[in-house]
Amino acid sequence: MTALLTEKNGTARRSPAHGSPPSSPRRRPGRERAFDDVPRWQIYLPLGLYLLFTLIPFYWMLLFAVRPAGSTSLVPWPMTGAHFSKVWNERSFAVFFQNSMIVGVATLVATTLVALAGGYALARFDFRVKGAFMLALLCSQFIPGALMLVPLFEIFRNLQMINSLGSVVIAETVFQLPLSIILISGFIKNVPVSLEEAAWVDGCSRFTAFRTVVLPLLRPGLIAVGSFAFVHSWNHFLFALMFLSEQDKQTIPVGLNTLIGADSVDLGALAAGGVIAAVPVVIVFAFIQKWLITGFSAGAVKG
């Protein structure tokens, strides 16, 4: 059917034919440009500058770690492994690495298990002090760990846990739990209760339904919470310094501090120790980055 001519207020205008798509509205002057209209250099240039600013310290550390002592070259050639051999064998970094791994893995397991139980309780049960408990968890994040050193030291001294890796694991777990419980609780809320109810109808107990139905769906959240606990305990300096005084019980952050002398600093050994400390963290994030992003974003949907 041909277009109809209509006349209104003395002005003729053509009506669109039946079935023809409406014309898209014109962009108003000054309207914000779409992302596709932005030149690529305006995106890549700031990102490149930020990446350069981030990577330069790592390159500088790697340069000092593999460059021979006394060299001033900005290119790591010829390379040497003398600094790594020195800190690993002479500075007891093999023992520090083992202790840090024990603390990190133990903190990961303890934090994940306790946060899983606490998060499930907050997500699935209603009790009188639930709001106050959630508020206490949030407020605990504003308390610096340094304020708790003296009471924690007295508690561990009375329990005869000073110079024990268990004291560091307990302290790290306690300070990781509030955020971990909140994240796990938010993630469990995203799992429909009807899935558990269907398992209950089939004869499963609450624990069996949780283990077989809910727990497999919590993998991103558990990976996020566990990796965050591991990295924090691996890098934390204060608790290990306060509760561990014997050299064979110290962790990598405290070991790095011993490389800084009163009058001089062995930059090569210090850089090599920093590389050794960074490698496990880089490997962890390289393998779990997609799970980490999914877990934190899903756990923050509901509170």
Automatic annotation (TrEMBL):
The chain crosses the membrane at residues 43-66, 101-121, 133-153, 165-188, 265-288. Its main location: membrane. Residues 12-21 have a biased composition (Low complexity). It is a multi-pass membrane protein. PROSITE patterns: ABC_TM1 (PS50928). It comes from the Bacteria. The keyword Transferase does not apply. It is found in: Cell membrane. Keywords: Cell membrane, Membrane, Transmembrane, Transmembrane helix, Transport. This is Carbohydrate ABC transporter permease. It comes from Streptomyces anulatus.
